[in-house]
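The freezer alarm interrupted the setup, so I double-checked each line after restarting. Inputs confirmed:
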Amino acid sequence: MPLYQADNLSHDYNHKPVLQIGQMEIPAGSITGLIGPNGSGKSTLLRLLAFVEEPRRGEIRFDGHPARPFDPRVRQVTLLPQTPYLLKRSVFQNVAYGLVIRGRRMDLQSRVWEALEMVGLAPGEFAARRWDQLSGGEAQRVALAARLALRPRVLLLDEPISSVDAASAQLIKEASLQARKQWDTTLVIASHDWLWLNEVCDDIRHLFRGHLLGSGPVTLVFGPWKPAGDGGVEKILPDGQRLKAAGRPDDPETAVAVLDPHQLTLSSRASLVSPDLSRLEGTLIQIGIEKNSDRLVATVVAGNIRFAVNIGPEDRPGLDSVVPGATVWLGYDPRQVKWY
Amino acid sequence: MDFISQGILEAFRLLLSGDSQTYSAVAATVKVSSMSMAVSLAIGIPAGFVLGYTDFPGKKQVRVTVDTMLALPTVFIGLLVYAFVSSRGPLGDLGLLFTLKGIAIGQTILALPIVTALCASAVEQMDRQLRVTLISLGADRLRLLKTSLWEVRHGILAAGLTAYGRVMTEVGISMMVGGNIKWQTRTVTTAIALETSKGQFAMGFALGLVLIMIALTVNVSVSFLRRK
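Predicted 3D structure, all chains:
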């Protein structure tokens, strides 16, 4: 049974819809990544999964039971917001807060010490410090320690490394994974760091304008779109190439085309692109192995747009000599382009 | 100019010799301001929290009313309370006219909107992430309220201090409702007004010094509490 089950979830702020998710499941003990541009609904989804807010419509089942904010069951879930708030108290009191309100005073000090050590803060040096005597990265790590001290069943992280120094980012990454290793904590991480997510996550969900677009790093191409001769539309890229898409979006000025990485092909020569597909010339900038599979994930820049391509084992032989920096060809079917 | 320097010297003499008339006015002021501040804080802090934290129909109108009451002149409050507690007024039977309790009622009307409005502002400025943080750390509703109040303690302290400053220094209510009766309802400010009109500056200066000392003590205590 999945730990989370969400059905027909929707949420809005001041009557403006921000999230609309048909179905979503998160297995216990997994690491799930959430990726998407700013304003795509990642933080809202995390707040709903943290039971800090209640969805306007729909239901979230936690551990098989419908759950709401303040239910005793959801105390096993904790969220680290993007800009964490530290209570106007000492570091020790901040980290201890969750344990104190749970009445856990017996092993308070050892739990606080353990959590501070996990995030790389020497307890003897930091425990007595005031909340306003910390750098941005230290404050973020204290906030994470406050969650880790609870040994949570679910840890939700909202852009945990977006505004911290490199050393803090590394420590936050390590501490999150340690939680999973030590206590089998289920992690849900929203981040722009695709490489990190790809490295640690069992599954990555892409959110855009409040909708789940599926797994993996889809490519978004923003308007304006112009009518093409074949009844579809096209976007003229900065280098003069044309990206074609079938259908007519409702508003060609603002419409966003979504390209599934599994439906793009990568070739080392233009002549190798299937004649049924349209093609774009670009530069390969990154190639790596997809976690838990035998597929490759590549990033290609064509006309300033980064395209994500997912390559199956059957297509790998022709790419053996292709290295980052090489000129490559993307193949795509304009009819497979989806609109948002 | 001599009369000013002589007045100040005489003021120190009155204070150091424990002049009973001077200390009677100080005692009346401390007593009446404590009563009015206790009631104002007890009602104003929760009311300000509700006004700043929650949404309810008519909230804007309540806020405008409270903000308007910040500008109530003390003589008008004095007039209002006088009208209610005088023998012809609806509360005349309670015998509150020319008593410290009567002054305290007027001062509560003065201080309550200050405490409420400033607490509401402090709560409104509270970081939105505080609620998210507390709930996600497992706080229940009561704990959420208690910790939120503690987090805005500096704003609440400032609200109390501002109200206390106005209560301590007002003349209109004390004069009109208290009647400036020697040994009974004569406060520091009404005594200063009276002594000045009589040309007796020494006691006026002495009482003024006491007011400044009280203000200094309160501010030093508050700045100590702020560091907590």
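Quick read of the result. The CA atoms of residues 26 and 210 of chain B lie 8 Å apart.
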